[in-house]
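Hello,

Following up on my earlier ticket. Below are the two sequence lines again, exactly as submitted.
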Amino acid sequence: MSLQNAIGHNGNGNGSNGAVAGTNSTGVVITSSAAPLPEGVHLPLYMDNHATTQLDPRVLEAMMPYLTGKFGNAASRNHQFGWEAEKAVETAREQIAKLIGATAKEIIFTSGATESDNLALKGVAEMYRERGRHIITQVTEHKAILDTCKKLEKQGFRVTYLPVQADGLIDLDDLRRAIVTEGPEKTILVSIMFANNEIGVIQPIAEIGKICHEKGVLFHSDAVQAVGKVPVDVQAMNIDLMSISAHKLYGPKGVGALFVRRRNPRVQITEQINGGGHERGMRSGTLNVPGIVGLGAACEICMNEMAGEAVREAELRDHLRAKLEGALDYVHVNGNMEHHLPGNLNMSFVYVEGESLLMGINDIAVSSGSACTSATLEPSYVLKALGLGDDVAHSSIRFGLGRFNARAEVDYVADKVIDVVKKLRELSPLYEMVKEGIDLTKIEWAAH
Amino acid sequence: MAYSDKVVDHYENPRNVGTMDKSSEAVGTGLVGAPECGDVMRLQIRVNPQTQVIEDAKFKTFGCGSAIASSSLATEWVKGRTINQALTISNTDIVKELALPPVKIHCSVLAEDAIRAAIGDWKKKNGVADEAGVEVAVAS
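Thanks for your patience. The regenerated structure is below:
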């Protein structure tokens, strides 16, 4: 732990120096109050662990030999360099399989979860095209799924996008009704994410798996946010294909995996990248040995520490929520909180626009549901799918707690957010109107 | 997104934040934008009926940093001008002054609309003919 902290803080410290200089150059002084920072708080402060996570120093340590002396190609069969690389890859395969209840042969390495999602959907669609042309997914999936589905639609597949309920979970009856079991429009694949990257809700995966297997439909899950954070068991949950990313679980970027079930049923996918027949023909290309070693090490650490870490993060998350709700009115939590990732908190600070809030807490890395920073100016499609109005979606912040967040940081973030929300509400005509008892929905707003 | 120093300055130290009595004859109120668009600006002016000089201006804005800065700047610029002078302020002036990126131009447009709406409201209250009408949000 001390090693982690030392390296972690060193990393943060370096970042901090650079960022403070950068901050000063833009003249932002709101964060640099004279008061000394509480112990355990280093700026900039990272609390955006759904976007990516800091590489665990233990993972780096495991990777290091494969970035230096052990540089062999895992496909080199005739010398020691190749053998040791291959051995490391197979160890990683075991580590990953163990974490998710799979066997090593069911793990296919990819460049990351976007590739895994593409390979799963396109690979199944192409392989089972003759069996049926219908795919089911849901509206709050990651774009790696949604954009791939759109492409498949152009190729003649029919895709059903299930809605979500106000708490972010799909209705299993909707799923049952959507599955087509006869004819050319037969459903071949259901793809439902394990846990949502914005609102943190965990779908009823075991029930979905059961329904799919009863109806003879393959089940893919994008489990990027869940693996290593909450228990995932592809056997118990009847998952046939599952996408994993290393950098979401304190591993390196640029490496991921796709679980492809080998029995009951044996799932086949058509490869999407050709050239050499690596990964049993499903994904050609020289293996990213250091990355794969990192993914394996990251999975093993999660395996050993997940239970305790989940409790710790959930406690911090609840503490953050309680502080914010205690100090501010007109705040609410988005997404079902019972079926929820331990480190996720998505909150709306109504009558405050999210981007302006982020600007006020610019020494803290979190995400906003407001897309004022994007070219489209559209707020989060995930929050909108819950039925939130655009105004509330614009007011939402995603806090992503992770392994390296300490309680002191949570307190710092809560205090800072409370301070800035109060300041911005002083500026907000909407807050003033609501306080005066004006019903904002009765106003004829001049659209622009 | 990197904000210009001026946007940051207005965000950190917004000028003329506040509320005037909107029922007062001397006060013109412009409420523009919509919550679902992520921007609502309310700009209020107090006009001297004899000189038609804007003697005071206040704003409140729900919106991003650029929207806050645009409206804060608008209050600074209208103060001390006659209503006709104030009507010559255009969104491009605001874009230039605050160095707004293309994606934030709508903030400046909204600020211009707010000025026009506030002046329009004052004119209506005071029986001054208004050529250029701007849609104004009305509390019903």
